[in-house]
Amino acid sequence: MSLSLRHTSEKKEKAASSRLVDEAKVHGFETELISLEKMLHQRQSSDQFKAIGIVGKRGVGKTTLCQVLFNKKAKEPVQANFLPRIWVCMSWNPNEYEHDHKATIVRRMLKYLGVENNIIDSVYKDHSLGGLLYALHLQLTGKKYLIVLDDAKPKETEEWFANLDSPITEKEKWGERLAFGLPKGHGGTVIVTSRDEKVAKMMVGEKNLFHLLPLSHPKSCSSIFNNHMKEGQKLENDTEEKEFLKKCAGLPLAATMMGKIKSEELEKAAKEAPEKAAKEPESPISSKDKQKNNTEELPTEPKPIQPDEAAKSSKDDKKIKSEEVPAGEKHIQQQENSIGSKDDEQIRSEEHPAEAEPRPNQEGAAHSEIHEEAVSGTN
């Protein structure tokens, strides 16, 4: 986790948690919800005050379980039996008020009960923390209330938060304990959630602790994960799903976060895919194949034959032909070639007759004639 993301997470933790929940996205708490409801109604009389502490590691679903219980329909026990019902986040935001943490908690409770801010400010100004607790007591007297104190932290180990079932006595002052602002004897109930078992134990007592464990069924985490995936999105294969379940470790918060992150990654990849394909350079292999295909499609011009190549080709043809002729026929072919050669010479001599050579008697006659002309010439 980056530093900036860590700071953002811390700021979100300081924001007040909400009582609202989408029950369609809650999975795996059926058994725990039944057990918590039974514990809620286990008391000696209907008017007895009850305090319950839900403890477990971060992300196990303590707040979610309380939200489901808190928002059960009117026909069901919680909304039918408890009124008013208020949800108070115990996380402290120093910027919310200029008062200490104790006063901030009580101010929130009064605000959610419908008391106006100007009245709260006036009471605190005139009577300090004790005045706020007295005002809270008056607002809740005679009512079977249900208050959820969500996310109690180690700083609540102060004595002021201890023993919520303690009634106020004449010897004590209103501002000494949170418990004094919670009337007893009308069936009021407080549920505390905390990661720290010591804190919850100090506030409600060990016998009233409800330990919430990670989800044991893998399908529950898968359902939570898929709730945060958009339509058409899913994990690539079984190996990736097994890796997710291992990292999730049965924690609903982890399944929620991983589902949101995976959905964003898939959405981003889908948007970037066309741009990436357009910008990606063509591989050398595919380029060569493409060039080869284009070359095969185009007609090729005949290559001019060089004299040396023609002679070589002629010799090769003769060699191939000679190799193809059987030995018996080869001798006959040689004789035919010899006869054919003589015939060719005779044809050429007939087409181009040579000048006849002078005969011996003719040469003598010519010589005598020349001699006679020479003698007569001298005469």
From TrEMBL:
GO terms for biological process: defense response. Signal peptide: none annotated. It comes from the Eukaryota. InterPro entries: NB-ARC, P-loop_NTPase. Keywords: Plant defense. This is NB-ARC domain-containing protein. Residues 266-295, 309-333, 341-379 have a biased composition (Basic and acidic residues). Residues 266-379 are annotated as: Disordered. SUPFAM superfamilies: P-loop containing nucleoside triphosphate hydrolases. Residues 39-228 form the NB-ARC domain. It comes from Quercus rubra (Northern red oak). One of its GO terms (molecular function) is ADP binding.
